[in-house]
Amino acid sequence: MMRASFSSYDLLFKQPAGTSRGVLRTKQSFFLKIEDASAPFPVGWGEVGILRGLSMDDVPGLEAQLHWTVQNIALGLEELYAANTQFPSIQFALEQAFSHLQHGFEHFQTPYSRGEESIAINGLIWMGDESFMLDQISRRLEEGFTTLKMKVGAIDWATEQALLEGIRKEFSQDQLTLRVDANGAFTLQEALEVDQVLAGLAVHSIEQPLAVDYREELAELVRRAHTPVALDESLIGLVEKEEREKLLDQIRPPYIILKPSFIGGWRGADQWIALAEARGIEWWATSALESNLGMNAIAQWASTKNNPLPQGLGTGSLYTNNLPAPHWVAGGQLQLVDDIQKSWDLSPLD
């Protein structure tokens, strides 16, 4: 007999000296557990990875929908996935948990799941004051990352520009790829001015330079900018295929960024990829600050895509109480290792 339950777990962010005021201190995730003694693996776990204020399913009815989902778990993945169209993080959790019942935590049989290959990832520069960000840049470079992603629009642009220029003076574009993420911080005119600087520094891409509501301006920026634009938050809330096609056709971004917890899990991400590739648009995946459980699910899926672009899966070290997992980051690569000292421990969720 199949049964299900869910629990809540607060992930605690590390807060080094120099961290900006107002940044996240904790992140609440919900975890779906399915038990089925008749399945190849008796327990399946899935992370409902919402981000408050950003996820489309950060609504008062989320927990009620989770209750309904676990009470009706016998309906199976297909029917439950369809019933959770407005709750993409629950859709992803269902995909994970049902996959665990069939395949365990490996999800898919790939060289990555066997620990034979690794996934290139970018090093994240967390927001903070200048000295804090400089320290992080130094640490990421020492750790062997060859792609860095830095937030812009978080502090004053002059300081951010100086940081980027300092990096580029030390490392050419052949040595180090720079990505920036604006989280919708700029107006069109500001973004065009910033673009002049980024182009001179050979920045790989700017993520979500304008807010999601400014589609016409985003389309104009894509046409005029020298630095390729990557859409992230613009993808959130677009559930129907026609809505997704309209966005891509209107803006024609060079890149899109896929967060499965925000867009309906693996199958939602697969649809975005198919639509994007049909239009010559490239993509990469990132976590939505999930725990190691959700991040593992994204990494396992991403490993099947043979995408050479560095993925955004270096967020596991942000937490002080992340769920212990056999992930290893070294030389800018994420790997799943078979190591008795780094096994899965989901006991905090029970």
What proportion of the residues form beta strands (DSSP E)?
Answer: 15-25%
DSSP summary: helix tally:
11
CATH first level of the largest domain? Alpha Beta
Number of domains: 2
Helix content: 25-40%
Question: How would you describe the oligomerization state of the chains in this entry?
Answer: single chain
Number of strands: 13
CATH fold call of the largest domain: TIM Barrel
Sequence of strands across the biggest β-sheet: 5-6-7-8-9-10-11
Poorly predicted tracts of residues: none
- Alpha-carbon Rg, integer: 20 Å
The CATH homologous superfamily of the largest domain: Enolase-like C-terminal domain
- The average pLDDT score comes to 93
> What kind of sheet is the major sheet?
7 strands, parallel
CATH architecture of the largest domain: Alpha-Beta Barrel
Q: What is the first-to-last residue Cα distance?
A: 20 Å
Description:
It contains 11 helices and 13 strands. By secondary structure, the protein is of the alpha/beta class. It folds into 2 domains: 3-106, 2-Layer Sandwich (Enolase-like, domain 1), CATH 3.30.390; 119-349, TIM Barrel. The strands form 3 sheets. The protein has a 7-stranded parallel sheet. A 3-stranded antiparallel sheet has the order 1-2-3. Strands 4-13-12 form a 3-stranded antiparallel sheet, covered by helices on one side. The chain is globular and about 60 Å long. The two termini are 20 Å apart.
